[in-house]
Design goal:
By secondary structure, the chain is α+β, with helices and mostly antiparallel strands. The chain has a domain of 38 residues. It has 1 helix and 4 strands; from the N terminus they run αββββ. A 4-stranded antiparallel sheet has the order 1-2-3-4, with no helix packed on it. The two termini are 53 Å apart.
């Protein structure tokens, strides 16, 4: 059994040594220069006297809190990231996750 293992090892080693040396790959060309992209300005119609607070994530405006003078604040939220703003009167969406234990490990 030991002779068979040595024979197989020698055949595999001989095949590995018979391989050609790999040639070095040439350096890839540098990427073309990218034009500077200006960030588009977000324009959302809100009353002039209202106080607007922005919430940004990664440089993008994802939520606005609009507080009109003498009124309750409301929120404009961009949930999909494509500019479709949804108005919400509160951040609570009403979903209540069940929080009771199913099984307790002891």
């Amino acid at each position: 059994m030991r002779r068979m293992a040595v024979f197989i090892f020698m055949c595999a080693a001989g095949a590995a040594l018979a391989q050609d040396k790999l040639q070095d790959f040439p350096e890839p060309p540098p990427p073309p220069p990218m034009p500077e992209a200006d960030e588009p300005a977000v324009r959302i119609p809100v009353p002039e006297q209202a106080k607007v607070e922005e919430v940004r994530d990664g440089g993008r405006v994802v939520m606005l809190k609009v507080t009109p003078p003498g009124g309750q604040p409301y929120y404009l939220i961009d949930t999909t990231g494509n500019g479709n703003w949804m108005r919400r009167d509160a951040l609570d969406d009403g979903v209540r996750v069940p929080m009771w234990p199913i099984y307790t490990f002891e």
